[in-house]
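Progress narrative, Year 2. Work on IS481 family transposase from Spectribacter acetivorans advanced from sequence curation to structure prediction during this period.
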Amino acid sequence: MNTHKNARLTVHGRALLVRRIVEHGLRPVEAAQAAGVSTRTAYKWLRRYQEEGWPGLHERSSRPRHCPHRLSEATRARIVALRRARRIYREISIAVEVPVATVARVLQRAGLNRLSTLDPAPPVTRYEHDAPGDLLHLDIKKLGRFQRPGHRVTGDRQAGRSYRAGWDYVHIAIDDHSRVSWATIKPDETGASAWRALMAAVRYYRGLSVSIRRVLTDNGACYRSRVFAKACRRLGIQHRRTHAYRPRTNGKAERLIQSALREWAYARSYAHSDQRAAHLPYWLHHYNWHRPHASLNYQPPVTRLRLPVNNLLGLHS
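Result:
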């Protein structure tokens, strides 16, 4: 136990005070004057030494030995049980007949002060298809166009505005097995743009000797359109959609978008959005051929395609 910062006597100072009285024959008032404390303090430590010996000179806890208003263990258990039944603080306070502040204190110590802690997060279900092309994740990211660097670079939200510049719609694709990615920028997110982006993605992966068999998308209007369904049927691709309001089902596409924003879209200062768009193929090349991935044992995605050496050199040149 720590000694108070303003305490005149430490354990050793109390022992010296007692020795001066017991062994050296000083009167308690004289020993108190020498130690710079009151006579009452000298008598207190002398009495504790006589009753408990040298261990009695150590600090004691200031906690009371008996507290008549302390909650019983049964009351605490009842508060926790009501909380696990998803009761709010006010309901628990009325049911147990204790103040709301007491309920809050008990639940905070039990780690149940937030309702989110009552339902533990479901275990993460990770999956990966066996071969490239078994599943292709698709998604769209909307980025604002600009004629001059914006506030992310300049720090001025007024001077860097580009009024009525419009939007860029980045259609992205990532292979579930290899993480080889592809992206293109379209002027909108209609069904026509979605199926054109799908056709371009299929041609890109075909150049890597990857045949697409399934695609996974969210429930956006462009992916529910007839023209996109017709394109999937014509290409012989099975189309699957995620559950509503569960973006983590398409988590690989969502993670690719985060990486693209951090490493491409917002990575440097572009003079205008066309310059940003022109840099997208270079970033994709770095992403697929050079960037290490933790999920692939820190190897680039192209290593998962198992391309022959001649094809590898030809595609990379």
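The mean pLDDT is 88. The longest helix spans residues 191-207.
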